[in-house]
Amino acid sequence: MSAVQEQAGTVGIVRHISAKLDGGFKGKPVVGLITLSTDCVTEHELRLMAPADRIVTSATRIKTHNPLTVAILREHVGEISNAVRLFDPVETVDVFAYACTSGSAVNSLAALTQGVREAGSQAPITAPMPGALAAFKELGVTRIAMLTPYPDEVTLFMRDHLAGSGVEAVSLGSFHFDIDYEMARITPEAIIESAAALDDPRAEAVFLPCTGLRASSAIEPLERRLGKPVVTAHQAMLWHALKLSGHDIKLSRFGRLFQA
Q1: Planar angle of CA 130, 135, 138, nearest 5 degrees
Q2: For tag attachment on the chain, is the N or C end more exposed, with fewer CB atoms within 10 Å?
Q3: Pairing between strand 230-232 and 205-208?
Q4: What are phi and psi of 97, to 5 degrees?
Q5: How far apart are CA 149 and CA 129, in angstroms?
Q6: Mean of the per-residue pLDDT values of the chain
Q7: What angle do CA 32, 33, 34 make, to 5 degrees?
């Protein structure tokens, strides 16, 4: 076929032009992001962290409700397979990321994976909690100071989940919000000062869970100030997603984890 063919039609002539093709996103990790309907923070944070020329993120949403409770979080797992089906064709996604820390403590990784398989994908899935646990293992951390934005029921569930995975929260604090979209209003400066005040000499790292927090800009200032690793929800989820996709990408400005 010539580079340009003219095709007569009822509305005139349409020129058919040969396109030059390449591998598309081949060679770059494609992360299928599953965020909550109330979450306006995760995509913003990942755009700051993940360079677009090296990492591809594509997002959809699942419905959630307020106030935030363990029972509400349990409902998320039933939405995973429908969310995965919205990526079409599903084979274009290398790894899925369910962007909810507390939800990925309440719902097991096995249950999340089952939802992905029911949608016809063989890709792995991660989330902030399995990402954080993998990060603590990578960093050799077993004792943390944890600052959450959650109500006490959810914060204590998180503490117990971590303990069951071999990570002890030796210092624990919360901003105590039960409306998750309000958490986005917590300033990075408040996160830095509160986490620094909460730190404990026994803690080997500081953990800032919740994808509702604008925490990416707090990582390096806190690490310099405290002299220990800082792990956040978005950072751990992205780091683990890249590992699972087979891409070991070093990112600057977002803590020791991406240099490990």
Answers
A1: 130
A2: N
A3: parallel
A4: -135, 110
A5: 15
A6: 94
A7: 120
Whether omega for the bond prior to residue 89 falls within 30 degrees of 0, making it cis, is yes
Q: In order of start, what are the domains of the chain with their CATH numbers?
A: 27-260 (3.40.50.12500)
**Residue 170 has what DSSP assignment?**
E
Report the alpha-carbon distance of residue 38 to residue 149 in Å, rounded.
15
Helices (H), the chain: 42-49, 70-74, 80-85, 101-106, 109-118, 128-139, 152-164, 188-198, 219-226, 233-244
pLDDT digits 0-9 by tens, 180-225: 999 999 999 999 999 999 999 999 999 999 999 999 999 999 999 9
Q: Please name the residues in contact with 222: beta carbons below 8 A apart, sequence gap of 6 or more.
A: 192, 195, 196, 206, 230
Q: What Cα–Cα distance (Å) separates residue 33 from each residue in 19, 142, 229?
A: 30, 28, 25
Q: For residue range 105-159, what is the model confidence (pLDDT) as tens digits?
A: 999 999 999 999 999 999 999 999 999 999 999 999 999 999 999 999 999 999 9
Alpha helices by DSSP H, listed for 10-127, are: 42-49, 70-74, 80-85, 101-106, 109-118
Question: How many residues comprise the chain?
Answer: 260
Phi, psi of 212, deg, nearest 5: -85, -5
**DSSP character for 254?**
S
156 burial level (CB within 10 Å; 0-12, 13-18, 19+): middle
Token digits of residue 64 = 């959630």
What's the token pair of residue 257? 């984890």
Closest C-alpha to 146, from 181, 187, 191: 191
